[in-house]
């Protein structure tokens, strides 16, 4: 008599998230090059190390530290947030999206993950998805200043400068950021309010004197306001003197101020007669415009 075969039992394996599958080969490599202290550091210590390395701009080592954190706690939302942000820093937008969607699988109500995912979608130029996610983030947490800032950018892109200003002002009530002040200034510039624009660029530079984008924008709006020598000095903080004179000359030319433009182009050529090809070309373009 044949005995009945006992059914085989298998332990069900947990389903891997898309992000887990992507990280699997990287974690295998990590295993092969474990640092000596890998087993001695706690989750919080790995996170702290990653934060410090990211702040220093060492993105590769920061990634290794965050991956060590992920190994210890793959469902840890602060770790997944950090991985998403670091992927975005590294322009790995698809990986950033996977990391952030993993958070939403764990916690649908995470305003932070929705805001960050909205920023990723904005980077991917998916404006519709970006706006939806950012607005959802604000409904969950009205203090998410980065969501207000990004919605301001989207409003400026569609020409709604009043709406953009409202979002930037809301962001600044929560967090005074040189980036937001610069964006607010640029929104005023686009709307034609040059004095307000200049004031905001100056505020951005007061908050961060090394912020080159605000420095450039301040020089630009100063030239637009007709303070040409001041604009040359401001551009001169970012570039060589001949390039600064050429920039102001070009702005004058675009506004039909041909005499001023010619004077600035000639000054640029005088400073660098052999190398300032651009100023020479601009001077020729100016002469053609005058003859038409």
UniProtKB/TrEMBL annotation:
PROSITE patterns from the xrefs?
TPR, TPR_REGION
SMART domains linked: TPR
Q: Sorted alphabetically, which Pfam families does this protein's record hold?
A: TPR_1 (PF00515), TPR_16 (PF13432), TPR_8 (PF13181)
Q: What is the name attached to this protein's record?
A: Tetratricopeptide repeat protein
Keyword terms, alphabetized = TPR repeat
**Residue ranges of TPR repeats:** 43-76, 178-211, 242-275
Could you name the domain of life of the organism this protein comes from? Bacteria
Which InterPro entries does this UniProt record tie to the protein?
TPR-like_helical_dom_sf, TPR_rpt
Q: Which PANTHER family match?
A: CELL DIVISION CYCLE 16,23,27, CELL DIVISION CYCLE PROTEIN 27 HOMOLOG
């Amino acid at each position: 008599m044949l005995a009945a075969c006992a059914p085989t039992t298998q332990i069900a394996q947990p389903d891997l998230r898309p992000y887990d599958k992507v990280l699997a080969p990287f974690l295998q490599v990590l295993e092969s090059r474990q640092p000596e202290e890998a087993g001695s550091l706690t989750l919080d210590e790995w996170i702290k190390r990653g934060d410090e390395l990211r702040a220093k701009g060492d993105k590769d080592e920061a990634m290794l530290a965050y991956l060590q954190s992920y190994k210890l706690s793959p469902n840890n939302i602060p770790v997944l947030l950090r991985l998403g942000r670091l992927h975005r820093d590294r322009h790995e937008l698809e990986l950033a999206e996977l990391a952030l969607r993993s958070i939403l699988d764990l916690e649908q109500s995470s305003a932070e993950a929705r805001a960050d995912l909205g920023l990723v979608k904005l980077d991917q130029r998916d404006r519709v998805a970006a706006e939806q996610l950012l607005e959802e983030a604000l409904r969950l947490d009205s203090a998410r200043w980065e969501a207000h800032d990004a919605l301001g950018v989207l409003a400026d892109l569609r020409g709604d400068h009043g709406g953009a200003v409202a979002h930037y002002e809301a962001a600044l009530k929560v967090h005074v950021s040189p980036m937001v002040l610069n964006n607010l200034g640029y929104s005023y510039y686009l709307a034609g309010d040059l004095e307000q624009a200049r004031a905001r660029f100056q505020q951005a530079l007061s908050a961060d004197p090394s912020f080159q984008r605000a420095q450039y924008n301040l020089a630009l709006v100063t030239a637009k306001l007709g303070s040409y020598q001041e604009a040359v000095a401001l551009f001169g903080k970012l570039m060589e003197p001949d390039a600064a004179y050429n920039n102001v000359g070009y702005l004058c030319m675009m506004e039909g101020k041909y005499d001023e433009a010619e004077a600035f182009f000639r000054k640029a050529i005088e400073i660098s007669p052999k190398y300032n090809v651009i100023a020479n070309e601009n001077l020729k373009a100016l002469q053609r415009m005058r003859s038409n």
